[in-house]
Amino acid sequence: GHPPPRAWRVSSCHVLPCPWPACVPINMAALLAGARLVLRQGVRLLPAYTRRPSAVPVRCLSSSSRLLTLLAQERGSSEVESAPVARVRTWQDGLSIHLVGSRMKRSGRVGKQKLLRTFEEVCKAGKPNSNQAWFFLRACGSFMPEVPLLERTETVNNIWNKLKELGVEFNVTHYNTLLDIYIQNEHIFSPTEFLANMEAANVEPDQGTYQGLIAAYCSEGDIDGASQILGFMKSKNFPITEEVFNSLIKGHARAGDMESAKNVLSIMTSAGIEPRWSTHVALLNAYAERGDIESIRQVLNDSEVNVPQKQLTSVILALTKSGYSQYVPDVLEYMPNCISFSQDIINLCLTLMTQGYEDAALEVAKKLNAWKPADGNPDSQPGDFILRHCVHLNRPISVLYKCAEQLQAAEMHKQPKEFMLQCALRNSNIDL
């Protein structure tokens, strides 16, 4: 199913409560005249903070909250405080989620601690709504390249349990999101048990659920299990989409039947579905897991196949995790414009480093030697992100020195050891 509207958008209908005491006389005619003027001229006459509440400083919100509390105490009525303060808290929660969501959209990643702090803030204010629940669940997969796979799965399970404890009613979108996160995190689970849990919660699986279950079976090379789910889909008249065929390519390949994997493209064509780049990427990943660099080159050299360069990051990851990192430079040759999608490259490097593939991470990182971080800091250097992550992971000194020497030789950092020392001090890692 399609994800719900993003929960972090802050509605412009939230207006700060009136700051003047009730004793101040108000000229209603003047106010109405002003309102009519605004309606005629449009929102361009409104001050910026009214049109764009996401730009309001948090200190303004907290000041308004304190003001409302004082007014409530002076009047001796809790009713004065409850509704406005709740609105301000809702606005603050929306603002926090908006900031995290903007960072995720811009960089494709979010820090675990930042996400959990935001989650705790929202939970303290009351029960998260459906969209907020979806947002936090969705962030626990590939949006966390700096977090190990097992830890990511533990995080999403903890968030799920907390939401359940607070009384959040899960719908099919929440279950589909959890399913996607399990697959992204390579978490091994029972698809039949997952379905049973949905049925126990009176949540009806939809097309997205069945597609996710097929992907889960295919990740384990279980074609029989995937075929059973395909049967359910056909009985419910759900269409067999390109995503399903892509999963079947992976499933056949991981079952050791590469011929059937390649034959999926012919089956798609005969069914009237033209294979697009995502299908070719699925086939490339299958070749990568077998270390078949010649077949990878053949696909990428095919003039009729147009795979976006940034999608090849998954091929590099598949090669590396399958023990064929020596072919990473071959794939990088087909990615001459890495700087144009630098955040995808950074996320790939962070993922490789997190999972213990430092050599491959450094090889990929060198493609960014001409990249300048857009963080507004004139002292920032291209190699900052990978050195900082090395320190955060508390890698052995030998690994840190190797990273420092290679990045300095690639002209990606002028003083790598000094920078890592600063990072260690900021993390209070005295031993390092």
Automatic annotation (TrEMBL):
Sequence ranges of the PPR repeats: 206-240, 241-275
Superkingdom of the organism of origin: Eukaryota
Keyword Ribosomal protein: no
Segments traversing the membrane: none
GO terms of molecular function: mRNA 3'-UTR binding
GO biological process: regulation of mitochondrial translation
Keyword Repeat tagged: yes
One CC-aspect GO term: mitochondrion
Record's keyword terms, sorted: Repeat
PROP1-like PPR domain boundaries: 229-335
One Pfam family recorded for the sequence: PPR_long
NCBIfam families xref list: PPR (TIGR00756)
Protein name: PROP1-like PPR domain-containing protein
Biological source species: Engystomops pustulosus
